[in-house]
Amino acid sequence: MFSLRYKAQKTMILFAFLLVPLLLLATFSFYPALYLFWLSFTSWDGYSPAKAWVGLDNYKELFANRELLGVFSHNLYYLFGGIVQNVLALMFALLLNIKLKGRNAFRVILLLPYILNSVAIAYMFSYVYDAQFGSLNSLLTLLGMEHFITSWLGNKHMVNVSLAFISAWKYMGFNMVIYLGALQSIPSDLYEAARIDGASRSQSFRYITLPSIGPVLELSMLLTVSGALEVFDLPFIMTGGGPAGASETFVTKTVQTAFNFSNYGLASAMGVVLLLIVVTVITIQRKLILRGGNDR
Questions:
Q1: What average pLDDT is seen over the chain?
Q2: Chain mean position to CA 156
Q3: Among 13, 46, 206, 244, which is 20 to 30 Å from 71 by CA?
């Protein structure tokens, strides 16, 4: 009898602990996602009670408008910057994983950009990239490299490179800490055995380090790809999508469609398409690129 009461109490406690997070998940994740999906089949201006059903018209307009889908080319800059950032983060993690004087201070310095607020970083780099009084152009002048001076946020060929650099600078320290934790979890006995067998450092890195941190590399690349597809804050704050739409991303275009043009139906369809693209890209990345089609 006592055993049955104990099992019942255990079940009730587990249910009670799960109920709150499940309700929060349903309220703030599942319901908004379903509501977004439903809105994508309607025509709504954002404030009137009427939401006219238009079926697939929003999706037809989206795929027929090259301008809406063409902004994905701007996201490629952030993807390339994210890949470079991951390589640099791994290099710094390898360097700071050895016995190096002041390595804790270097770790803190590299992690600081990630701790800073994104809006503060955007305003800070707005002064750095200022065409007339920016510190970057002043530094180039001081170094006698005036031919490199340009309007970093006003030049359509440089604006996305400039913004992608900020993103890479901000998140490199975060990835470095993740890689550092993964490196420190590798047993030192493996490296000692490899040295006894005559393995070089490059061979130890290839056959011990990389396979050991493979899951962490996969996670970082998943975050990099999804983050590159969902870039919003930097172009929205620093350039507003300019000059002449050269720095618009798919998310900034979605926000503009909803709030500037009051077309919430089309914006919802754009959100659904972005969600499907992110899920598809991540699935391909996991199954074909990173895992070679086989689970570890």
A1: 88
A2: 23
A3: 46
CB contact at 8 A, 238 and 126: yes
* Cα(58)–Cα(52) distance, integer angstroms: 12
Query: Rounded to the nearest 10 degrees, what angle do helices 264-284 and 57-64 cross at?
Result: 70
Cis peptide preceding 243, ω within 30 of 0: yes
Give 49's DSSP letter.
S
Number of alpha carbons in the 13 Å side-chain half-sphere of residue 28: 6
Helix (H) or strand (E) holding 42: strand 42-43
Which tokens go with 192? 């000692």
Burial environment of residue 155 by CB neighbours within 10 A (0 to 12, 13 to 18, 19 or more): middle
Q: Which two tokens stand for residue 294?
A: 């086989």
pTM score, whole prediction: 0.86
CA angle 277, 41, 245 (to 5 degrees): 55
Give 4-38 pLDDT, tens digit per residue.
577 777 788 888 888 888 899 889 888 998 999 99
Q: How far apart are CA 51 and CA 54, in angstroms?
A: 9
Cα–Cα distance, 193 to 188 (Å, whole number):
9
Picking from 200, 235, 229, the residue whose alpha carbon sits closest to that of residue 73 is 229
CB atoms under 10 Å from CB of 114, counted, come to 17
CATH of 57-290, one of 3.40.50.2300, 1.10.10.1400, 1.10.3720.10, 3.40.50.300: 1.10.3720.10
